[in-house]
């Protein structure tokens, strides 16, 4: 018959790792389905970590793509601004020749002729006649 005192006394003589090992062996004998439960749990934890790693990789890739797009857009804007600075005086001279004495028409030319295809330059009327 099972004696609690004897079992407790036997445990007192075992090391921690031996006691754990004996408990697992006993649990495996008493409840064989527990081994399957533990295996499934460990597998699900492994799958969860794998999915988290994949999500982190995807997020990293998306973040890198966003950074690349931002860098590309900044470079594109710098190039566009440089081109606008180079051609501004040419467009201003042409507009002033075409629309002599009419600053509204000169401004309209800048806006509607797409001096800057994506952004019209910020130019005040005073700058047009400098």
Explain how this protein is built.
This protein is an all-alpha fold. The mean pLDDT is 80. The chain has one domain. 3% of the residues are buried. It is built from 5 helices and no strands. The protein starts with a helix and ends with a helix. It comes from Onchocerca ochengi (Filarial nematode worm).
Topology:
Layout: H1 4-12, H2 16-30, H3 33-98, H4 103-112, H5 125-128
Tally of separate helices: 5
What portion of residues belong to β-strands? Answer: under 5%
* Rg over CA atoms: 39 Å
> What is the number of beta strands?
0
Main pleated sheet: none
What gross morphology would you assign?
A: rod-shaped
Q: In whole angstroms, how far apart are the ends? A: 110 Å
Mean pLDDT: 80
* Low-confidence region ranges: none
Notable characteristics:
130 residues, mainly alpha, 5 helices, rod-shaped
In short:
By secondary structure, the chain is mainly α.
């Amino acid at each position: 018959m099972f004696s609690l005192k004897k079992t407790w006394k036997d445990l007192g003589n075992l090391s921690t790792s031996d006691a754990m090992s004996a408990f697992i062996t006993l649990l495996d004998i008493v409840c064989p389905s527990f081994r399957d439960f533990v295996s499934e749990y460990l597998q699900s934890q492994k799958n969860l970590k794998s999915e988290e790693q994949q999500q982190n990789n995807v997020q990293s890739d998306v973040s890198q793509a966003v950074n690349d797009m931002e860098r590309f857009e900044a470079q594109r804007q710098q190039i566009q601004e440089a081109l606008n600075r180079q051609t501004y005086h040419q467009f201003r001279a042409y507009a002033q020749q075409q629309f002599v004495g009419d600053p509204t028409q000169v401004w309209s030319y800048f806006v509607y002729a797409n001096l800057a295809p994506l952004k019209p330059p910020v130019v005040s009327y005073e700058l047009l006649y400098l």
